[in-house]
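Figure S7 source data.
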Amino acid sequence: MAGIYLHIPFCRHRCVYCDFFSSTDQSLRADYIKALCRELELRRPYLGRAKVDTIYVGGGTPSQLSVGELEQIFSYIYKVYKVSDGAEITLEANPDDLSDRYVADVRAVLPVNRISMGVQTFSDERLRLLRRRHNSAAAIRAVQRCRRAGIENISIDLIYGLPGETLDEWKSDLRCALSLHVPHLSAYHLTYEEGTPLWQMRAKGEVSEVSEETSVEMYARLVSMLEDAGYEHYEISNFCLPGMESRHNSSYWRRVPYLGCGAAAHSYDGVSRQWNVASVGRYIRGVMEGSMEVEREELDAATRYNDYVVTALRTSWGMSMPVVKKEFGLAFYEYCMRFARSYIERGLLELEGRVLRLTRKGVLLSDGVISDLLWVE
Ligand code: SF4
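Tokens for the predicted iron/sulfur cluster complex:
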């Protein structure tokens, strides 16, 4: 079992909070798609004989590509890889791009069976502040269009803790999200990333962060409202109706190998991580001239243990302690249990059978718990 991630590094314009690798210059788009197809071909051996169970087209804004351009990419994937029947195939989309025509063509031409939409908030005022292209009505229409076209597996992303946002406004966002009955929802606290316009706006006093107390209340409300509505809280920031978790993202958390193609895309094969150069021009040149710029990190036991703690503890399925002992060794197992013990006594972690996981109370304080369990030399 394996996954493929494709990075589409183009956006119509930049949102003020974003530090993802993407560019508004789309002049190299056609060359980029050729390079992406070439990379898919060149790197076929990376996944060995594993069948591809999930494909995720992320960005950037993949829905900036035409359906014809996406078709070109998918035809390469199907030509070169063995894709499982019933594979989960996700396209990230900006609500504004999802016109009736676009959605109908996606459905008719592409193997995509899941749409992940960056909604962020249903407040038009805050969407403008974030410099998002869409408004709340467009987001709601986009969800309805996907459904009408027969794409039921829809995920929406929300951001909370926006400048000036109150707990009541966040609750109203959540009510609006719940009224859409989407099977999957991800919600992230706004972060002020260095170098972004939002960072500058804060430095100039134009916006300010919500208080720590409000952030905690917002997260607690997120969890309680979604759980009351029947969603499973299967990862710290991710919720789904039963059986509808993101198979692709769950594979990352379950350490399933994946191939990442495109500028700045990361790949993982169980023993190493590697990532492509974060430049559209250099990426295209490297692939086409056979001299790809790639950085690689071999993962020693401590790094693999730390990755496991960070990913597995964020999920509802938790850490398997026999896996810790078997894959990383007794020293890591004992280290983990030594630090976990006090959290178990305080009710922040629980050991159920041989699975260690955060309790409901622990989820609210997850950063501190997780960092204490990390291996430090
Ligand atoms: S559309 Fe997405 S990737 Fe592009 S700038 Fe906005 S947040 Fe970043």
